[in-house]
Each structure stands twice: as C-alpha cells, then as structure tokens.
Design goal:
Blueprint (H helix, E strand, L loop, with lengths): L4 E6 L3 H12 L4 E4 L5 H5 L7 E4 L9 E7 L6 H10 L3 E5 L6 H11 L6 E4 L6 H11 L6 E11 L8 H17 L4 E8 L9 E7 L5 E7 L1 E13 L2 E6 L8 E5 L2 E4 L2 E4 L4 E3 L7 H15 L7 H23 L1
Parallel strand pairs: 1-2, 1-4, 2-3, 4-5, 5-6, 7-10
Antiparallel strand pairs: 7-11, 8-9, 9-10, 11-12, 12-13, 13-16, 14-15
Helix pairs in contact: 4-8, 6-8
Bound molecules: nicotinamide-adenine-dinucleotide.
The site of nicotinamide-adenine-dinucleotide has 23 residues, from helix 1.
Amino acid sequence: MSVKKYIVLVGAGYWGSKIFEKLLKLKQNVIIFDKDINIHKNLKNKINSNTIIVNNLNKINNFDFDSVVISSPAQFHFEHIKFFMKLNKNIFVEKPLCINFNHIKYIKKKLINYKKTFMVGHIMHHHNAFKKILYLKRKNFFGKILYIYSSRLSFGKLRKHENILSSFAPHDLSMILSIMKSKPTITNCSGSKILSKKVYDNSIINMKFKNKINSHIFVNWLSPFKEQKFVIVGNKNMLVFDDTQDWNNKLMFIKKPLFYQNKSYVLNSKKISYIKINKNDALLDEIKYFLSCSKYKKKPISNIDESFQIYGLLDQAIKKLKINEKK
Ligand SMILES: NC(=O)c1ccc[n+]([C@@H]2O[C@H](COP(=O)([O-])OP(=O)(O)OC[C@H]3O[C@@H](n4cnc5c(N)ncnc54)[C@H](O)[C@@H]3O)[C@@H](O)[C@H]2O)c1
C-alpha cells in the first residue's frame, strides 16, 4: 500500500489561506501547521479529507512529505527555513525571505550543497503582464531605457515586525532587476515612521544603474488609495503596468513618446495604446512552478542568488534610511 504524500503549509492566515486554495486546486494533500489553534475556523469550508491541521511542528514528522510552503509572518521565516532545511525538504518561502540580512547570508551558505529546491515568493515573475514586459524588452520595444520606477501604495496591511521596505519593495526590486539585468547602487533612501517608533510606514528608494540610468521605488502602506504602477520610460516607447486595472488596461504604452516642438519636448499623449495580455492567476502559476522545479530539480528564477541581490539592496537602503533619519 502506498503511503499518502503531503505538502506542508506553514501559516494559513491572509496569504497562506490563498496558497492553501491553490494547493487544493493542484490536487495536493496538505498538512497545515499554524500557531493559531483556531485556524480551522478561517478555513472551514475549504478543508477536505486530504487536509490535516497540526499545531506542533514536530508532529509533521509522522507524515510523508517532500515540500513545504512557508507563509508565516516574516519574523519567523528564518526559524522555519532552518527547521525544514534540516529535514532536507523542497522549500518555498514567501517574501520577504527574512527581515535580517545576516540570516539570508547564513541561508545562502547553507544552500551551497543543498540538493533540494529553494524558492522565494517573488510572485511578479509569474504575472502575465510582467512576462509580457520581459518579452517586449527582449524585442527592444523600449529602445534605450531612460528611467524605470514603481509605486506600490495601499492602506494596510500594517505590520509590526517588518518595515514597508521588506514588505512591499521585494516585488518591485525583482521586476526592476529582471529588466535591467545588472546591479544598481542605492543612491539614497528616505522614509517615515508614523504609526510606531519601530517600523517605517513609507519609503522612497533611489538607485542608479550603470550608464547612469536612474530608478526609484515608492512604497507606502498608509495611503488613502491603492496604486500599483510600474513605469518604463524608453526612447522608443513608454509603458505603464498598472496592476489595479482590469486585464485589458493593465499594460498601457505611448509610442514614440516625445516630439520636439517650439524648442521643447512634448509628450505624444494622443498615441496611447493598450497591449493585449492573457489573464492568469499568478499565485496558482507560482505554486505550480515550485512543484515542477521540485519534481524536475530545476533552479527557480527566484532562487537564493536573486534574493541575495534583492535583500542586499534593501539592507543598503535601510542603512541609508537610518543615516538620513539622524540628519
Ligand atoms: N506574495 C504576496 O503578494 C504576499 C501577499 C501578502 C502576504 N505575503 C507574505 O505572506 C506571509 C504571511 O502574511 P499574511 O498576510 O498571511 O500574515 P497573517 O498574519 O495574516 O498570517 C500569518 C499566519 O501565520 C500564523 N503564525 C504566526 N506565527 C506563527 C508561527 N511561529 N508558526 C506558525 N504559524 C504562525 C498566524 O496564526 C497566521 O495564521 C508574509 O511573509 C507576507 O509578507 C505575500
């Protein structure tokens, strides 16, 4: 008789419960480990006969499983990663990989001889709009990129142990680095602690790439409106990826954006068009991709090297921010 194979999900709160739905869609048998003994109440009508809930991590060793998805709050990621690395499992950990960059250095070292998959939840890699942007970049759609920036604003979810930078900016950094394919330097970073003395609620990170291409990311969880705009200013086309729009309007561009008139540049705003993209469920595709990388032993896009760059930049940004705060 074959033993039932499971996948472990650590943390089934706001985001973990969405991951749980995707795992069920993918016909996985799931063991949920959550510190909250009442978690089943949140998940009530989603739980099926192939789901087990445990509230003591050591109990999971009674079951057969190869992989884990970690969606606990960021401050616990390090201890959960270490736990599952010791058991030699395929690991998917939600962003931010860890809050403390020294923990990421430790994990990177431990992963050198690790034979299993290690993937970080930088979900934008699996969003069809962003995949289209990468395709357009390969086709030289933008021409020379002159500037690239992003704003990610919303009201909440306010986190107490994690800065806005770790919470929101990994998404934008993973997109910017994938497009620019080189490492920028952080030229400046500012931010404000408004609700507590502990964590920043908003921040602007300024970066410079080689060839003097500048870039910035604005993140803010104390915004009265939601905005998720990613902008590429190229000399051939300017593009806006607005993730708050419906699928027909997510990718807007202006062809030949600038023309010269009366001794100054004018924006060719009459030439606005939209790019057709097929709708996808990025989270479902991301989890599917993790299962496939684990099965076929492929190195995921959002591997430890990508993460080391992203969180290294965030670490530099936070250091600059703290210096600026003292001024
Ligand atoms: N990729 C994305 O777009 C995205 C979106 C939202 C959240 N996230 C990430 O998902 C993770 C979870 O965020 P969330 O919004 O679901 O948080 P949440 O607070 O809603 O849920 C966390 C869950 O983990 C449980 N938990 C707390 N401490 C635990 C521990 N030590 N061991 C086991 N379980 C524990 C809690 O009981 C809760 O059920 C975070 O890393 C967050 O950044 C990613």
